[in-house]
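G.,

No rush on this.
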Amino acid sequence: MAEEGSLLTSSPNKSSSTSILSEISNVSTRAFVLAFIVGSCGALAFGCIIGYSAPTQSSIMKDLNLSIADYSLFGSILTVGLILGALICGKLTDLVGRVYTIWITNILFIIGWFVIAFAKGIWMLDLGRLLQGISIGISAYLGPVYITEIAPRNLRGSASSMAQLFAGVGISVFYALGTAVSWRNLAILGSIPSLMSLPLLFFIPESPRWLAKVGREKEVEAVLLSLRGAEADVSDEAAEILDYTKHVKEEQVVDGRGFFKLFQRKYAFSLTIGVVLIALPQLGGLNGYSFYTDTIFTSTGVSSDVGFISTSVVQMFAGILGAVLVDVSGRRSLLLVSQGGMFLGCFATAISFFLQKNHWWETGTPILALISVVVYFGSYGLGMGAIPWIIASEIYPVDVKGAAGTVCNLVSSISSWLVAYSFNFLLQWSST
């Protein structure tokens, strides 16, 4: 069912934050390092976009005279773009390749940021946010897939997790910067990761698995040599990729069902795992916390500056810890701990609102609210942020990977939109 191994476990690997980087360095060439940086910049851009709306909510609403409904639309229209991006991500990456798709996503990121930065009204804000959403909808699945396909087998989990860590870094940095930088300047700063990526894209290789899939077999070994080093023996890896791709093509000729091949019984378990894992944090309120953190803090009496900086620091360290542990403890254990922590954080936030509404323990309520939000984001950074996408990039064979990416992205995007649009209204109706 899956070409990369078991669903929720990985082989143990000696790992610490320095040893992960050391191992990547030991097997890396310039091409691999540049590709890893590009993947990391894409995740960083993603994090900046997610973290942008929370600290800027009050200033944008004041400057452009927006209502709660206007700002809820601005926050949630990102997920409408996610849905549009999810619908095309699989087909686009299979059609034009991984690298050209990265070009497209970075250009959309840049345009979106500058439209927001120079917005004069709600329609420009929404347009910029929509373009960013389309780009995220494509890149959220593309990034882990590309890094998984170019990384050595023993480093796929660590490399993907390290790259996804930068999404948490982007959120944390924008939470902190949002306390000191105006929303227009913050939007311009958000374009920096994509602007950095563009010149690097001239020097990174295409995925060897995609090359094999589109019939460019002669380039597979050359690309592997550029990724592993001129002295490396890549004959076995190249043969494995070519043999597997040939087998998949033969099955496609016999089957002939295209996109709908994914819905065969033999893929039912892996499809369920991928869809549920990716939808779970979204349905658990992630975009509500991410987009409207400022509202949660101010509603419970927490200083926004203290809240955003505390959340930034904890989420960043939790992401680093998750990257260290992903190949040591395995995917499944980290997911269980991470999801349990998100539940506790969410439940404690509800308790803080309940205590405040009834005027109980008024001095301690802000502290409980701050701790609950920190626990929620820290737990998310530990595992649920990166691992579901890593698993989704590992458990599907190449012939259905594009279709699986589309389905996973679509479910995630719809879940995100439901939460992002309704959260502010639900908070007004009953904060608890």
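When you get to it, here's the other one too:
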Amino acid sequence: MKRARRAAPGPLPVLGLLLLGALPALWTVLLRREVAALPEPRPPAGQPPGRLGWGRSSAARGESGGGGQKTFRTLLAVPAAATDREERDGEEQLAVTDSQPPADTGSPVERGIFWSRELEEQVPPGFAAEEAAAWLSAARAARVASLERGGCGRSSNRLARLSDGSRACVRYGINPEQIQGEALSYHLAGVLGMQERLPPMALALVEARGRQWEPVREELRGSHWAEGAVVSLTRWVDNLTAVVAPAPWGAEASAGRRLQPLSAGELVGLPPSQLVELVQWSDLILFDYLTANFDRLVSNLFSLQWDPRVMRRATSNLLRAPDGGLVFMDNEAGLVHGYRLLAMWDPYNEPLLRSVCVFREGTARRVAELHRRRSAAAELRRRYRAREPLWARLGFLSERQAELLQARVDFVHRHIAHCRAQ
């Protein structure tokens, strides 16, 4: 009797064993395909990739990114708007920064997008809150002892000597919305935590027979100011000097190139004085975007079309105090006048904002809070009404302007979250 032979294994079990052995390699291939399929960041709709301020990441340019130090160009020149996931990730990361490991000692940047605490501590204090409050109280109570021409901008403005011995620029706007913009910009800076960069400012009511203006009644007649007009009193500051925009906003733009930041290595090698100034410039550009102020660096960029060296000259309405602190002067174009002209000036304001991807952590936190609560206009209104007795004379933002302010806060928040996601 013959023994039954064992049947040879069929083709299906053998194929299953082969597939099981190939699974690790197949999984690796699939992962690589998923990574390769991720889309590159794109500029916002309506903005060509070559527009001012648009910068590609080092990976997109084919540069090495194998775990080395990121270039400052990558940090400061990123694509436009983040995705919803990037925004959520950015909010989570901002909320847990205190648990992050400490940054390298001596590095000017912490956790990828924040100026180091050591560097921020070197920024000149500017106009301290207590000092500003004391001057505002004294200026509102003082009489105007004299009015002089010159030194305060347009010919309709005056340099006032007050009875307490201090001096102030009295600005008489071409129309009331300029004075409104000046006042609201000053208090928005307070909401954002950067009011120390703006000289103290108060509103005043022009009344020739009133106590405050009685000593200069004759001068008022020659000023052509309207009775009952609202003007702004801004503290005069001695020994201010002009400011030329630093790289990447100065020489490169003047040479006709797109705004490109310094590399990380060059940033580390910069002297502390230049780094301290860049900290303040990051606040300035963010502030001017939120207020849509076109009468500072944006106006210089606009003038490049007929003056190629304008960026090598003084920046409009920006001065330097003797201690090195920047002073954000004359913000009349902000919020009200600027919001009426967004279509004309945002092609310059938006690329400027995108050229910055390193921020003061306190500024980023305040923007995130205004975004989360959707409270930008409400916070501004609350502060304005509490600190400016004459606020009702000029009123507040319209509903549409309030919506624009919140939309711009949201845009800045998305930009910061996108920088963090990089």
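The chain has two domains: 109-124+240-421, 129-235. Residues 1-8, 11-87, 95-104, 261-265 have pLDDT under 50 and may be disordered.

Enjoy the weekend,
O.
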